[in-house]
Design a protein that fits this description.
InterPro entries: ACC_epsilon (IPR032716). This is Acyl-CoA carboxylase epsilon subunit. By secondary structure, the chain is mainly alpha-helical. 34% of the residues lie in helices and 0% in strands. It contains three helices and no strands. The radius of gyration is 28 Å and the shape is rod-shaped. The protein starts with 16 loop residues before the first helix and ends in a 5-residue tail after the last helix.
């Protein structure tokens, strides 16, 4: 492919400038590699309720002790 050849061509119909712009935009977006999702920010208030290393455990009566101070 030379520098003079178009990347794509319309073979049927007469698209408007807006339709061509939408097509080019869709092609550009689809050709980019997918970005990793941004990590979810946790507020300091939410972190204070979950001390480090204190994973929830399932045990008999665990639901009662879940509301008690540690």
């Amino acid at each position: 492919m030379s520098a003079e050849e178009p990347l794509f061509r319309v073979v049927r119909g007469v698209p408007t400038a807006e339709e061509l712009a939408a097509l080019v935009g869709a092609i550009v977006v689809r050709s980019r590699p997918a970005a990793a999702p941004a990590p979810v920010a946790t507020s300091a208030w939410a972190r204070s309720g979950r001390p480090a290393g204190a994973a929830p455990t399932a045990r008999p009566g665990g639901w009662r002790s879940a509301g008690l101070p540690r």
